[in-house]
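Tutorial handout. Part one gives the primary structure; part two gives the three-dimensional structure as tokens.
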Amino acid sequence: MKNDSLYMDAILPVIDSYIDEKQKVMQTVDQSPTNYFTCETTKSRRQWPQILELMTMVGHQEPLYRRLNNVIRERFLKSADAIYCSLRMELVMSAHDLNIESVIRSDPCHDLAWCLDACVRDKHLDAQQTIKLKNILESTKKTKAEVIGDLAMIAGDAHVIHFLCSMAIKVLRDSALHATGQLPRELVPLQLLLRLLSFGASAH
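Part two.
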């Protein structure tokens, strides 16, 4: 890419700022009726100045977006910092909010991110979303390793992990309350949730 060094000079400080600010939020210990997972809506997280600034730099240029995601992936692999998973998630959903078609069409993570974002937002996983998520997981068997890694980063977003764990506990609790007599391994909804959790955990 032409002027790659200039592009790096522009995006790296913004990425660093995002990571630093996210870490501060995660480490906040002040008493509050909310916590890291409830203090912001899914949409407000995509309104962070750093996200908007990065998307402004990318514009409608798919090569710039791809280069940005490559940097995020490389940094995640080096650091194992899951905040990079959140950054990956929020960028693709920001492109969705901004209706940047060229970027959306080029990102193989869009459908997974869009579906999981709706689940996190609504705190619910319906039948249609269940089918879609199953199909996405099945499709990874024929997908390039690099794309699988990016998809796993989406599933590794802290808010997604929190949602999946919360849903898994709910499924187990409901099963116990209704005395279904089923073992956890026999609960079909739980199987999908655990597959997604495992997928996200395999991102690094």
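Part three, for discussion. The chain is about 70% helix and 0% strand. The mean pLDDT is 90.
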